Amino acid sequence: MTCPTSYSLDFACTYWFIPLTYTFNAPRVSLIIDSLQTVENIMSTSLATTNGTSHQHILIIGAGITGLIFAQSLRKRASNSLSTPTFSIFERDPSPEFRGAGWGLTIHWALSDFTSLLPEYLIDKLPETFVDAEAVQRGETGNFLLFDLQTGEERYRVPPSKRIRVSREKLRRLLMDGLDIQV
Prior knowledge:
By secondary structure, the protein is α/β, with parallel strands linked by helices. It has one domain. It is 32% helix and 22% strand. The protein is built from 6 helices and 11 strands. The protein has helices spanning 26-44, 65-79, 111-116, 120-125, 133-137, 168-175; strands spanning 6-8, 14-16, 49-50, 53-54, 56-61, 86-90, 104-107, 144-147, 154-158, 164-167, 181-182. The strands form 4 sheets. It has a 5-stranded mixed β-sheet with strand order 1-2-5-6-11, covered by helices on one side. A two-stranded antiparallel ribbon has the order 3-4. A two-stranded antiparallel sheet has the order 7-10. It is elongated and about 60 Å long.
């Protein structure tokens, strides 16, 4: 991933635009991890200084799941006493319910990376977002069955593994916790 372009809006701050995309899946979690590496690179290089102090600010455009995970990962980084730029989040939707419930999400391949990006208290609250909390408590992870739609025969079975199934709206609402989102 190449370093993003910066736009100096004044002498005291450099704003960084780090591309994040709309959908959430394993490659997007990798993108967030790459973006955090970019933040690390930004913090190690002082580009704009005032009295010897560097001031970087990240603009996160869109409070979708990916943007919110990135913002929470920055909060986690700051809580671990790591040098972290300030950030602002901008969202066009007036509320989390604006688009409706949406689909459920199954997080599996990226689950460990996903949880590594979140503050601990949000990980503890993840069960509040589960589609079927009782199944998770029973340890049921289920199979992904893929069928031939012409014959109705099972074609593939992805075996059970560690995964969670969450409500998209509930996850988004949880990820908004503690963030100042500007509409």
